[in-house]
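Async update (no meeting this week)

Hi team, since we skipped the sync, here's where things stand on the single-chain job. The sequence we agreed to prioritize is pasted below, unchanged from the tracker. I ran it this morning and attached the output directly underneath so nobody has to dig for it. Comments welcome in thread, and please keep replies under the output.
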Amino acid sequence: MNHQRVGDASYSTPSGFAAYPSAGGIPEIFRNAVADINKTQSVRLISWEEAKVDGKIVIDQIIDHIKTADFFIADLTGVNPNVLFELGFAIARNKRIWLLIDNSITRARADFQGLGLLADVGYAEYSNSTHIVTKFFKAHPYNDLNATIFDRHIKASLGSEIAPSGLLYLKSLYDTEPSIKVSKRILESDLRKTIDDPNESLKSLLWYAQNIFRAQAVVCHFTSASRDDHKLHNARAALASGLAAGFDKEVLLLSDSDYLAPLDYRLMLQNYKSAAQAETIVDEWLRPFEERERKEAQAREQYAEVVKSVTELRGFQLQLGDYQAENEVDQLDDYFVETSAYREALSGHQTIFVGRKGTGKTANLLKLTSVLKADPSVLVCSIKPAEYEIESVIKLFQAFEEIDAKGHVIESLWKFLLYSEIANVTAEYLKEQVMYRQRSQEEDAFLVFMSRQSEALSGDFSVRLERAVSKLIRTGRREGVEKTRIGVSEALHAGVFGQLRVLLGKVLSDTTRVAVLLDNLDKPWKKTADINFLSDFLLGLLATGIEIPTEFSRADSRRRAVPVTVAIFMRSDIFAKIAERAAEPDKLAHVRLKWEDPALLLRIIEARYEASHQSGRDPETMWKTFFCPSVGRAPVKQYFADTIVPRPRDIVYLVKEAVSTAVNRNHTRVEEEDLLDAEKQYSHYVFDSILVENGITVPQLESLLYEFAGRKTTVTEDEVAECIKGAGLASDLKESLMDHLIKLTFLGIEVDEGEFVFSEDPKELKRNNIIGSKLARQLKRKRRFKIHPAFYAFLGVDQSESSEAARR
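Output:
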């Protein structure tokens, strides 16, 4: 249909579809608004309530109306999942979108912001039907039907040469038993998979659109309405499901049996009553895709060659990959950037590696696994416990009240888990080797032993943990510490450890190294968890990880030495909490994953570019070809370094957003306006990520951060106190809250006149605090802090000259 402006003789009446919640007074407001708009005969609006067959709402009717409509109106008050599903469908179908929110409804704006997917789209506010009508004819969405979200923000980024393959998996918000089973089945699949973990980071609309478009199939795991924070999680999942339906993807929606699916996707959603049923549903659904994927392996290889050969900006966008290492397993070897922390882990000289979210802990583990496995004389035990049976483990420690007994139980449990992991990996290795060489008598004896002890030692990590915990609970605390320890040893089959150690020495003594690698230890670290218990639990892991290499290094008449190394990757805030619980925290020697050199961060982007060009290219060619020379007065590379929190995930995120923005505008390179608009999206992302990273530490952190909105870049100690008060937090918490904001690198400390330092290292923080306090006394003024530039765009921080109060 060729629409002309209203009033032209050739004008054909545009049609629109209106989606809105069914609760409260909103339906009446919209019925009146739709009727008044239709009276003008400028457009023809139909509401979802009119899409009825025999008085019943039928989703097929709604979908058909959206397909034939020229534009789509959506009310996002309360982020209704039905509306968001329809919105996702309309976006994928390239409809002109006009959004509304009833500003008289409590939390309506906050819910929209919390959704995070439509921050750049904007919305009109109303509180009655007259407002809607007036603003509709002022915005006239029917006149610019080509100004669609799809055309402006998505289309150019999709890539017509991409053959859809693999699976996009939107995880549940909580690691329930069914979620664990579903995740395990998907992770074990040979399908190329991209994982959206809501506890890692919140994704943008463009990210969902790109990854849904490029996938063959999509799995969305909704969260029961009985669980905390389900509302926004399910709203995002609903919008993603609508996008998938709009792109004609195969979609599986899952949830607990007590989740009554909204009408729009009720027929698409499968409820389960047990973990086993959830696993069965996913297993049966996945099999056809896995078979199809195997047949299309050659097409994927051809696509990889296409990506490598493309040199224009859109090709560069494809070469950047994903900003989460978990989704880049196949490509990581091609462009991994080595750091001193990685080299320490590779050498095996250190056990504990600490870093914030996004600093490369998982990337390091994946690269280490790949490099070490390439050496046939190295045995690698890579442990990523996707979830812990936390509730059962907590019950376990309620049965062991004495500190001494509790500490013994924890360390014994970890020793059992790590010993049995080494034993299982060794057994699997020996079984595989039978095709290449004949096993020795010692190796056969070891396998016989493992077979006899299968009830105690077999199974994957989570199975062994669950089994061991159950036995320990049955054992319980006995009269006296010594008897309790004996009971623990019996429950964990400690009697077999001596024999196991001897046998492992015989079959592994010729290996150059047995490398035990652990990651994913932050999964249970949530506001619902017992943090003191978790700290003790993980402290036991650190102690055991340090002890086991020493145990295996000992040799005598029965035991041969085995070169075992352990590398444990842990989040900074978790490690800090663990150190508080340790009797001797100084003995927890560790290496921090830090990216203080801007050139090293930029190298992450350059390495991805170089990996896509077999002939090799100078990275400077990339910067000159694809980026404008400067942003404001800063050279473009300096702009990136100054804007982001210094982490690999952040540099990849911002560069990808900037390139995607430029591609969507048909630019041949990333211009300044593209960078500044991408910075807004990145700023929102880093704001959300700091809330995820904060975990359970300060429940009101979001409110506190919002208090800095509109402030100057530099704030005084008194202004920080005002923000704390404005967030409703007690004034006596000022010092601890300031320290927390500094640890999160939201605030930097002034250490010299006009010089601010951002750091999360505890020792550096202590030093910087002392220097900052001395400087303030010397200059006879309050301490000053700087808001990190990464948060400027989202919080609308005033970047003009500091206020007179701040200068004083």
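Quick observations from my side:
DSSP finds 35 helices and 23 strands in the chain.
Residues 1-10, 305-311, 802-808 have pLDDT under 50 and may be disordered.
Reply here if anything looks off.
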